Amino acid sequence: MMDFSDYFPVWDQLTPAQQMRLSGSLSERTAKKGSIIHNGGMECTGLLLVRSGQLRAYILSEAGREITLYRLFDRDICLFSASCMIHSLQFDITIEAEKDTEFWLIPPEVYKNIMEESAPVANYTNEIMASRFSEVMWLMEQILWKSLDKRVAAFLLEETSIEGTKQLKITHETIANHLGTHREVITRMLRYLQSEGMVKLSRGTVEILDEKKLEELQEL
What secondary structure letter does DSSP report for 83? Predict the structure, then answer.
């Protein structure tokens, strides 16, 4: 089985002392599907590096609605779970396991010290930060300028790509949580897509019937 050094991209650019410090401070964790790994209101959890599985980072509105900011897959690292390391971070992010997940937890103080000593780690961290913020900005653009039918079409196509199947085991509530809207609104939108022959709905399942039409819809 591959270990942390295979998953951390700049491992080979660390000094032996830094490698020992990092590997000596790591803890291996598992999270069951649906469990919360980091709650925005909790104290600093640490940095998460995903070995296998799938995590979702989301924020909650004052009304209690969720909206997905980004997802994390194998080899992805989450910095926002170490909010104490990023003093300018002003919003609370929750991280949930979308699938059974194995990950490493890196103590923030250890990572921060190595980042201050190592230019490759600092550059890698800045790249991740820039990537995450560009994902959040893209999301804001979608919310502000794209109609919901296009956003639902894009979400279904993304799910199809992630899961590798057109038979999506997903509830209307889950889609609503990803997109920051109400379940009833999603149900109406999915029924419309079904009437147009793009999807077929059954209990807890959305089957993609016409991928091409969904792609055309999201690009309109």
Answer: G
